[in-house]
Amino acid sequence: MSERTLNEIMDQRRAKIKSLLAEGIDPFPHNYNRSHLVEEALEQFEELEDQAGVSLAGRLMSRRVMGKASFANIMDGSGRIQLYLSREDIGVEKYTMFKSLDIGDFLGVSGKMMTTRTGEKTLKVLELTLLSKNIRPLPNVKEKDGQLFDGFEDKEQRYRKRYLDLIVNPEVKETFIKRAKIYKSIRNFFDDNKYLEVETPILQPLYGGASARPFKTHHNALDMPLFLRIADELYLKRLIIGGFEKVYEFSRNFRNEGMDRTHNPEFTAIEWYEAYVDYFYLMDQVESLFKSLAKDLEQSVFSYNDCEVDITKPFKRATMAELVQEYADVDLSKADAAELLKVCRKHKIDAPGNANYGQLLDALFDELVQPHLIDPTFVTEYPKAISPLAKNKRDSDGTFVERFELFIAGNEFANAFTELNDPIDQRERLEAQAALRDAGDEEAQTLDEDFLQAIEYGMPPTGGVGMGLDRLVMLLTGNRSIRDVLLFPQMRPESNG
Fold first, then answer.
1. What residues does 71 pair with on adjacent strands?
2. Is the four-CA dihedral 219, 224, 229, 233 of positive or negative sign?
3. What is the rounded distance in angstroms from the CA atom of residue 288 to the CA atom of residue 188?
4. How many domains does the chain have?
5. What is the mean pLDDT of the chain?
6. In the prediction, which pLDDT does 320 show?
7. Residue 5: left (phi > 0), alpha (psi -120 to 50), or beta?
8. 457 shares a domain with 308
């Protein structure tokens, strides 16, 4: 539609508003008393049939004017229903008004349920009220035999104008209804296990708990810089130190990084921490959480990334070293950083010459192993060099730590540690991270002196997990892009030229 045509249509609809007001009709009344949702009226059809007083409200989505009688469809948040309107039933004035309505207007209709000659459950309208006049036309949607076509298909515009996407493609709502059900299931899981749900700061004087670039802002009253959190880990650990032994938080996190099919700069995660447990306990717990989700969703097999994944089967477990040896064909018992760099070069994996052993092992894993991890797999024993908040693997030389990540269909879903609670070791590691930052690594972690002081008061043995919920929703709803599970994903500005 050209800009000129759009302006003409909108001018015509503004003129209709003036005409309605001149006739004493308020095109934007304050409320409407409806008796049923569309879904309820259809479900209770036998009880309601031929009984007057069924009042519904919704958006006009289609209409077929046939002289003295017409059919239309309205849609509310629960579904669509056909309306039958006649000049005889609602009077000449209201019928004339109905014929002048536009697709997208909101209507209040009252009448009784009936069945048409074709067997369709329909509301016979006896009273009609205009609830909101549409000025800007909806996308060009056509209907045939109850099916929509020529709808709002442009993906970019659907993300930018999600409200139109939800109107024209109502099946999209199912993803977000299911998302809410997933959140409720997770919350019930932790509440049933006696965890306390908490809230920690989004605006932080220092960011930490992950390796990522932050968003920075400024607090005018305090005249100080603040950061949007990249993770809530260090605050949740403060609560463990303070005596809360089981805590969890649904946290909105922000990372000033690239955007792709599985990354949005603003995302939702859940983190939980429990005193006196380790990462072996957490593996069992995460597996139980997934099986609880499968039960609540009444589904065990999910389609994701062209893979069929059964989350009710036992999850696999393997160390990072075992998997890299298998897929990179390298003997890690003899390989040092120099040897791993050669293997990276052999496989054309980008790695800086000054990368350490842990960074190189991780690079090999990302490129050669991760795409093959289809069935749910706990990858354990990560290099200490890339895990500054995890406890050393017990009975080891300190090269590896007690950390796992959960992989499904080639993507990472959870990250967990036996948390480091030795304040001396923790300080040394964060100082090492600070040195990396000074050397130019923008994703190295910051040194949080307040957290270091907190842990010096004593932190019990603790296990903690972080899980990205957007990616989890992608898995459980079968969506391939994170934008499809976010109501309002971040978008580049539209070009004006």
1. 64, 84
2. negative
3. 13
4. 2
5. 94
6. 96
7. alpha
8. yes
Element (H, E) at 231: none
pLDDT tens figures, 298-312: 999 999 989 999 999
Q: Report the C-alpha gap between 326 and 191 in whole angstroms.
A: 40
24-74 pLDDT, tens digit each? 999 999 999 999 999 999 999 999 998 999 999 999 999 999 889 999 999
Range of the domain at 209: 174-315+375-485
CATH number at 21 reads 2.40.50.140
Residue 165, both tokens: 């996407």
> 470 vs 264, 371, 412, 478, CA distance in Å?
9, 20, 12, 12
| CATH number of the domain where residue 244 is located | 3.30.930.10
In a domain, 343, yes or no: no
Q: Residue 6: which H helix or E strand, with range?
A: helix 3-22
**Tens digit of each residue's pLDDT (9 = 90 or more) over 371-399:** 999 999 999 999 999 999 999 999 999 99
Is the model's pLDDT at 275 over the cut of 60?
yes
Q: Are residues 234 and 107 in the same domain?
A: no
**Same domain membership, residue 99 and residue 203:** no
How many Å apart are CA 349 and CA 9, to the nearest integer?
57
Spatial CA neighbour of 108 closest among 98, 96, 119:
98
